[in-house]
């Protein structure tokens, strides 16, 4: 049985937060987006990226989600500062003072965290900030984006923009719910070092993580 906890008009359509037993689910325009059932691959996205960067990393997380990635970043000894870019104010609210707050032990209150309410693509175009690690988890994958505008990030021009926001030796991490060979090929054409991890899930195809170093 599922209970709808909140329903709002988001930046790109309807957003619904609902409870299913002990877990929470986020639905965007009637399509399942994320839940709190596992989160292993979301945590690995940031922990592996942090492992690949020496020293105290300055990390950018694209997409707050249910806070799993942020919590993993704060718990990693190699992360010193985290900037989270999230365009949906409702998602920020659910995580800051809503029911998702307990999922990540109130990670947004940590002094090392800065939350930016903005569209990631637009923000990247105008910012001059640079990071040791940039972890991208705003879609279900390069070919399964929440909005059409996000697809630009996974093309050659988007990869160029992401690379420009990395410091020398920096790492780009990308989360996907499916394998996308064409995207892997674009990564290898743009970055000097690319690593792919497949994370088994209870049902369906494994989640896929890519890590690329400039």
TrEMBL record:
UniProt keyword 4Fe-4S present: no
Coiled-coil boundaries: none
InterPro entries per record: SAM-dependent_MTases_sf (IPR029063)
SUPFAM superfamilies hit by this protein: S-adenosyl-L-methionine-dependent methyltransferases
Keywords of this entry: Polyamine biosynthesis
Name of protein: Spermidine synthase
Phylogenetic lineage: Bacteria, Bacillati, Actinomycetota, Actinomycetes, Pseudonocardiales
């Amino acid at each position: 049985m599922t209970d709808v906890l909140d329903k709002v008009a988001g930046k790109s359509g309807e957003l619904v937060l609902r409870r299913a037993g002990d877990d929470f689910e986020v639905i965007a325009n009637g399509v399942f987006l994320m839940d709190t059932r596992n989160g292993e691959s979301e945590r690995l996205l940031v922990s592996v990226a942090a492992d690949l960067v020496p020293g105290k990393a300055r990390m950018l997380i694209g997409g707050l989600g249910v806070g799993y990635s942020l919590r993993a970043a704060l718990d990693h000894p190699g992360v010193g500062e985290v900037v989270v870019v999230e365009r949906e104010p409702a998602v920020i609210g659910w995580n800051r003072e809503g029911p998702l707050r307990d999922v990540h032990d109130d990670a947004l209150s940590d002094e090392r965290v800065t939350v930016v309410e903005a569209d990631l693509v637009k923000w990247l175009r105008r910012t001059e900030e640079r990071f040791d690690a940039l972890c991208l988890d705003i879609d279900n994958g390069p070919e399964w984006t929440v909005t059409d505008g996000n697809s630009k990030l996974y093309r050659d021009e988007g990869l160029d923009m992401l690379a420009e926001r990395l410091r020398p030796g920096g790492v780009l991490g990308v989360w996907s719910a499916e394998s996308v060979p064409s995207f892997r090929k674009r990564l290898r054409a743009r970055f000097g070092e690319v690593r792919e991890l497949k994370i088994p899930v209870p049902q369906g195809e494994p989640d896929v993580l890519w890590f690329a170093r400039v």
